[in-house]
Amino acid sequence: MNNQFLRLESEDVISVHPGNFERIEVSKTFTVTEIIEILQKHVGCNNKTDTKFFTAGMEAKVLRPGDVWQKGKIRIGIEFCPEETDTQKPAINNNSHSNIETAPLNH
Predict the structure, then answer these.
(1) Could you tell me if residue 98 is inside a domain?
(2) Among 11, 43, 54, 55, which one has the highest count of C-beta atoms within 10 angstroms of its own C-beta?
């Protein structure tokens, strides 16, 4: 792994072994939105103010070493670090449907 994490979008699908979670019951495959909803329930987010931490963000200040306080927002998201960086999406030729490559869904 290259430790280059990419932020996943709300409808991206994730597949994990459910045994990775000790205190949260999840299925093997879910969307980012679904896992965020599960996490919200697990940590007790039950009103709009609490859920902002996962959606629009909540007002905050951040202090970085050697810098000054900076106002802004913080939020929690789901990120993914691919094992290989040379993954290429197949080229789609709009003029011919016979040369379209498809990638299998791997777990």
Answers:
(1) no
(2) 54
